[in-house]
Amino acid sequence: MQSDSNKLPxxxxxxxxxxxxxxxxxxxxxYQLMNDLPETYGxxxxxxxxxxxxxxxxxxxxxxxxxxPQLYVERFGPPFLRARHLPFAIGTSERDQWMMCMTQALEExxxxxxxxxxxxESFSALASxxxxxxxxx
Length: 137
Hints:
The structure is a single chain. The protein is mainly α and 137 residues long. It has one domain: Globins (Globin-like, Orthogonal Bundle), CATH 1.10.490.10. It has 8 helices and no strands. It is globular. It holds the Pfam family Bac_globin.
């Protein structure tokens, strides 16, 4: 049996990116891009005029999703992301607009290229999972 003193500390993405301050910076930049880029009008119009509520919920969710404090769960319970997004028509275009904002926000806030690539891959899978509209042929 291994003693506690021999265990290596577990480093989560939350810790690796710099914790709360970086998660907040990522979320702030993400919503700034969504608000400012004409190419993301499709997803911007799905949100309230004031993005602060959406930004706070994304911050709370990402804190836990990155392995930090489970702030979203503590406040709202399990995220059930797909179910919460079902009222919105999310197809390939909306997914791609969301990823455009997240990709740029990641590039501007996450210094470690390997970590940034892993996060991008995870976000891409999550964004694809949110799609609830059939492909247009």
